[in-house]
Amino acid sequence: MINIFNRALLFKDVNSEAAARVWSALRKEGIEYDVNTEVNTGVLGKNKGHLAQGMWPGISVSDKYSENAASYVYEVWVRKKDLERAKEVCSL
């Protein structure tokens, strides 16, 4: 079981395809892992679209700028004792 005391961060990125390659390689080799996904809303936070609308007239919440404001950050954690092997398996 991976917990906060015995884990190490193997991978952190916003690229979902790269994250999937990492956890697929770990699964194939039988290395236990955990994946955390967080919303990355940018510098202006969750209300980025609303702030943009107030700051720049003519920009609405439905504009492409605010629709794409949120992305995801993927973190892949492994046991500390498995970290070096996991790096080799994932070519990191």
Name the features.
three-stranded antiparallel beta sheet, alpha+beta, Alpha-Beta Plaits
The beta-strand count equals 3
- Strands of the largest sheet, in order across it? 1-3-2
Could you spell the SSE succession in H and E letters?
A: EHEHHEH
The CATH top-level class label: Alpha Beta
Helix/sheet category: alpha+beta
Explain how this protein is built:
The chain has 92 residues and is α+β, with helices and mostly antiparallel strands. The protein has one domain: Alpha-Beta Plaits (2-Layer Sandwich). 37% of the residues lie in helices and 26% in strands. The chain is built from four helices and three strands. The chain has helices spanning 16-29, 48-55, 64-67, 83-90; strands spanning 7-13, 33-40, 71-79. The protein has a three-stranded antiparallel sheet with strand order 1-3-2, with helices on one face. It is globular, with a radius of gyration of 18 Å.
What is this entry, summarized?
This protein is α+β, with helices and mostly antiparallel strands. It has four helices and three strands, in the order βαβααβα. The radius of gyration is 18 Å and the shape is globular.
Write the topology of this structure.
Elements: E1 7-13, H1 16-29, E2 33-40, H2 48-55, H3 64-67, E3 71-79, H4 83-90
Antiparallel strand pairs: 1-3, 2-3
